[in-house]
Amino acid sequence: MWKTIIRRVLIMIPQIVILSVLVFVLAKLMPGDPFSGTIGPNTDPKQIEALKRAAGLFDPWYVQYWHWIVNLFHGNLGQSYTLKQPVTTVLGNRIGNTVWLSLLSLIVSYAVAIPLGMTSGRHDGSRRDRGIAIFNYFTFGLPTFVVFLLGLYFFGYQLNWFPTSGTVSINASGFFAEASSRLYHMLLPGALAGILGTTSTIQYLRSEIIDAKSQDYVRTARSKGVPTSKVYSRHIFRNSLLPIAAFAGFQITGLIGGSVVIEQVFSYPGMGQLFITAITSRDYSVVTAIVLFTGILALFGSLLSDIILSLVDPRIRIE
Amino acid sequence: MKKSTKYFTGLAAAVALFSVVLAGCGSKSAANTPTASTGNLKLSYDNKAQSVKDGILNIAMVQDTPFQGIFAPVLQQDQVDQFLTEPMSGVYGTLFKTDGQFKIVDGGQANLKINKADKSLIITLHKGLTWSDGKPVKAKDLEFPYEIIANNAYQSQLYTDSLADIVGLKDFHEGKTKTISGITYPDGENGNSIKIQFNHLTPGMWNSGSGYYLESAEPYHYLKDIKPGDLAGSKQIRQTPLSYGPYKVANVVAGQSVSYVPNPYWYGQKPKLKKIVTTVVSTSTIAAALKDKKYDVAYQTPATAYPTIKKLDNYVQTGHQSLSFYYLSYNLGHYDTSKSVNVQDRKTPLQNVALRQAMGYAMNVDQVNKKFNYGLQTRANTVIVPPFKDAHDASVKGFPLDIKKANNLLDKAGFKWDSKHEYRLNTNGKPFKLVFMARSGNANAQAIAQNYIQQWKQIGVDVVLYHDRLTDFNTWAQTMQSGTSNDWDLTIGGWADTTDPSLISLFGPGTQSNFGHFVSPEFTSILNKIDPAVRQKAFYDMQKYMQKEAFVIPTSYSIDWYPINKRVTGWTNDNAQNNTRWINVGVTADATK
C-alpha cells in the first residue's frame, strides 16, 4: 500500500505543475488587471505603467510564471494588489475562519445525518421514515440563501440567541474569551450549513441499510442469535458507510473552499468571498494561490478517500 | 483623503450577489412604494434631548465584503476605509475646516494661507494638535505623506499630475533627489508649519480636496522604521494606528469591526461618546438589523432597502446630495497617446448634434430613478453637482423626457423613418445601429439598460448592447482607458466628484478620462477660463455649451442616505460641519430605541 501511495503522490507532481500553468495563464487572460479602474483623471498614466512594470505585468507569461514559481518555493505567494498585504497574510486571516466553520458544519452534518439515515433505513416505510423523508425534501429543496436569511432573521434578530455578523466580538480579549466568542459566532451558520448538508448522507445511508438488511451475512448473523441492535451497529452500519467514506476525502477540499452565500449573509469573512472578490478585482496573486491550493487539496482528497475506503472495507486494497 | 481624487463610481458594487433584502416580511405593492428625495431626507437630525455621558454608538457599514482596514488617509483608495477613518480625522479626512462648498476657512486642525505672489502656500498646525500616543503633531508629519506618495518604493497609486506641480516633487519621484525641494519648514522639522512651493497656482487650490496638495498628516516617528513595501500591510497602519482627531482606534477585528474611544490628547471639545463601534453588515440583512434596532447609524445602505427602512418608526431618514454624478457619453473619436490629446475623428452618425440631443430627450431618467433607485438618484441637468451652489447652473434644463421634441430634432436633421425595418436611416439614407456598452454591477443594471434601449427605439434609433449583454467593470474600464476602441458608441459612466467642481480633468482636450473624445476650440477656451475672477461665469458657460453640444447627456445625481436611530443626538450631514461632526454626535439612552 505504501508503494502505491508514494506512486500516487509522485504522479501528482506533473498534475500540479499542469494545474498551476493553467491557473496562471487563465488568470492572466481575464480582461483588465489589478490597476484597471483605480485610475482617476488626475492619475499620471506613467505612474500606473511604472507600477505595472514593477509588478512584472508587462513580462511574457512564462517569465511571470517562472518568477511566481521561484517565489512559491521560497514560501512567498506574492503581494495582494488590492488588499496591499502579503498573500500569505490574507489567506491566513481567512483560512482559519473557513476551516473552523466548515469543520463545525461537517460535524453537525454527520451528527444529524447518521442517526437519521440509520433510523430511516432500519424502519423503512414507517412514520419515522416518512418524517425523515419530508425533512430531506426541505433540506434539499430550499435555496440555501433563503434558509440562511430566515435562520438569521429568527434566531439572530427576533430571538437574539446568536450574534448576527462577524467571526468574533470586538470586545473579546484573552484566549478563552476570544475562542468562546468565535465558537458562539459560528454556531448559527455552522448548524444551518450542517443541517442543509445532510441530504445525501441520509439518502445513501438509508438505501445502503435497506439493501444490507436482505443480505446473506445479516441473515447469518441473525440466525446465530445476534441481537438486532448489534446487527445494525456492528454488521450493517460498517458496510453501509462505504459510499460515505468514499466522499470523506473530498470533504477536505470543501473545508477550505468556503461558501460565498453563508459568508455574505453572516458577514463572515472566509475563503469563498475572498476568491470572488479577488476575481472581480483581478487580484491575480490571490486568485492563483487559492486555485492552486484547492487544486492540490483536491488531489490529496481523492487519495485520502481511497485510503479511507481501504481501511473501512478490507475487501478493497490499494494495489 | 476622500475626494482628493475622482473615483469611478460603482467600484465597490461589483460583488452584490443578491439584492434580496429581508424586508421584515411585509407585502408591498409598487404603487405605494415610498421613494426618497432630498426634500424628505433631513440634512440634520435635530434631537433636542440631552445625551448620556457614557454612550456607545453602533454603526453598520453595509456591504457584502470585509473592509480593507487601511487607517492612513495617504494610502487609502477605498471609500469604506475613508468612512472608517472619519471619527479619527473628520468626514473628509482633512485637517482643514471648510464652508458648505468646501472652501477652506480658518479654525480647523490646521490653517491654510496661500501666497499668490510667490505661488506658495503655508500650512500651519493647531498648537495643541497631538497624536494619540501623546507626541505632538509636527511639521515633518505634514511632509511625510508626500514622501509616501511620491517614493516609488511605497507603490502608491496616488501620485498624480496635480501633485507633480509641487516644485521638486517630480525629481524626488524619479529618484533624482533625496528630498523634496519645494517643501520647506519655516520653523524647522519639529515646528508646526510647512511651506509648499508650486510651479503654478490653480483656482481649485482654495478648496479642500483639490488634489494639488495633501491634507492629512502621518506620524513620522511611528512609521519611519517600517520598510516602504510593508507599510500598507503593517500593524501600525491596520491594527494600532495613531490619531490626531477626537477619537482613536481601540480595537480592530480585521475586515469586520472597529471600535473607537476618545483620544485623551485631543485638544478640542471633549467628544460625547464613550465608544463607537462600526460593524460590517450584509446588504441583505440591514433592513432586518435596523428593524431589530441593532444599529444607530447605517452607512451605504442599498436603495432597495429604502421602502422598508422608511417605515421604521425608530429611525429618522437623513441624507444629502452626494458629489457623484452619472452621464451618457458618446464615442466621437480616439485618444492619441503619443501626443496626449483627444481627436474627434470617428465616422459615426453621432457626430450629428441633433441625434445626440434627441437620444438625450428620449431617455426616461425620472422613471428609472423612481422605479429602480427609489428616488435615491435624481435626474441631473448638468455635470456639475448642485452642492456646488456657485458653480451649478440650475437654469440649464438638461434633457428631460420629450419624445416629440426628439422626433422633431431627428426629422429636421434628416434622419428619415424607414418603414421597412421601423427604424430611422442615417442622413445619407443608410440604416445604422449603435452599440451601447452598459456596465453590470447593479442588480437593476440590465433592466435600466433595456429601458433606455426601448426608449431609443421609440424615436427610431436602433441600439444594441455590446456583445448582447452587460459589460463587467474591468472590461469596461480597460476599454475606456485604452481610448482607441471603435466597438462602442455609447456608455454610461459615473464619477464621485472631488470637492473641486472643475471638470477639466474629465472633459479637457488632453485628458484620457474624456471617454467620448469630444474636443472643440470653443470648449477648450471655456475650460481654460475657469479661474477665480470669472469662475462662476465660466462654469455657467461650460454647462450651457455642454447642453448645446450634447456630447454627454447628464443622467443622474446620487443622494447619500443615512438612517439614524432616534436616540442619536448631534447628527448632521452638513458639509460645513465635516470637521466637527464626530465631536458633537451623542446618544440619549443606553440602548438603541
Structural commentary:
The complex is a heterodimer of chains A (319) and B (593). Chain A is mainly α. Chain A folds into two domains: 86 residues, no CATH class; 226 residues, Orthogonal Bundle (MetI-like fold), CATH 1.10.3720. Chain A contains 14 helices and no strands. Chain A is globular. The termini of chain A are close together. Chain B is α+β, with helices and mostly antiparallel strands and 593 residues long. The longest helix of chain B has 15 residues. Helices cover 22% and strands 21% of the residues of chain B. In chain B, the strands form eight sheets. In chain B, strands 1, 14, 17, 20, 21, 22 and 23 form a seven-stranded mixed sheet that branches. A five-stranded mixed sheet of chain B has the order 10-11-12-3-13. Chain B contains 16 helices and 26 strands. In chain B, helix 8 runs antiparallel to helix 10. Chain B folds into three domains: 259 residues, Dipeptide-binding Protein, domain 3 (Roll); 135 residues, Periplasmic binding protein-like II (D-Maltodextrin-Binding Protein, domain 2); 142 residues, Dipeptide-binding Protein, domain 1 (Alpha-Beta Complex), CATH 3.90.76. Chain B is globular and about 80 Å long. Chain B: Keywords: Signal. Chain B: Pfam families: SBP_bac_5 (PF00496). Chain B: InterPro entries: Peptide/Ni-bd, SBP_5, SBP_5_dom.
List keywords for this structure.
heterodimer; A: 319 residues; mainly alpha; MetI-like fold; 14 helices; 74% helix; B: 593 residues; alpha+beta; Dipeptide-binding Protein, domain 3; D-Maltodextrin-Binding Protein, domain 2; Dipeptide-binding Protein, domain 1; 5-stranded mixed sheet; globular; MetI-like (chain A); transport (chain A)
